[in-house]
Amino acid sequence: MLYLQAELNKVVDRYASTPTGTGFRCSSEQAESPTASAGQAGGYRRCSRRGSAKGDNVVEDGEVERVVEYVHEQLPADWAQWPGGWPGEAEAALLDAVLSIQAVYGGPETGVRSAVGRWRQHRGGGRLDDLSALASISPEDLAQVLDNRQRLSGGRLKAEAIVDAAGRLVKAGMSSSADLDGGRDKYRRAYVAVRGLGTVTWDYLCMLLGVDGVKADVWIVRFVGRALSDDQGDSPPRTRDPAYCAELLRSAAAQLQVPATTLDHAVWANMRRVGPADQSSTH
Hints:
Layout: E1 45-47, E2 58-60, H1 61-74, H2 90-99, H3 111-122, H4 131-135, H5 139-146, H6 158-172, H7 184-192, H8 199-208, H9 218-227, H10 242-256, H11 260-274
Parallel strand pairs: 1-2
Helix pairs in contact: 1-10, 2-3, 2-6, 2-8, 5-6, 6-7, 9-10, 9-11, 10-11
């Protein structure tokens, strides 16, 4: 079993449980760097060399091809489809991204989606696309509205992290989903500055708002590690880096000519189905 890097700039929540619902994915912050989000400046680039990379920031075509091959080997012909997220609803996306950390996602009337529904009812119905509403409520009041007193690994209420994140995003210039493309890297920095939150759930929040991407959680990291494992089942150390795995899967999606989000969800659903035990591999 692969373990993510133990020492990075942002030590946040780790994977704790498997979701039982059939909706969006259960989110879990990994030990991760707040400055190394896949697809952001300072991330990984692709090169055409074969063999071992000479720099940690290189994603090689040979490795991309092995991931593509593993996708064909492991995923069923009928891929699980991405449910669609919360396009145009920044409040709902932020609630989902944080509440799903180390939590069972639940069904339409339970878990994360029921909490989003309670917030929608509190707001009078309609679209949830004004982060200032979340920024202006007290954490205790939000926890009561959501009927959720879950805490992050450091003991902080998730409701407190949500209010904090909303306030920082609004201050940085993101009040609604329409603002996201105006300064995504700036908003990412604001989000990961919140104690307990990091780039994994930031990527997920963006995906929930319709941005094509990869959420490099424990399932994605395990999948990529197995795809690149040798005959003894050992994987290159760099496959423990979520940003590296995210870029590999993005490159694989491009080669397969499918959206990265589509491949990400299909891999996650398949890994969840087969469980944590190592799969057999021809590598």
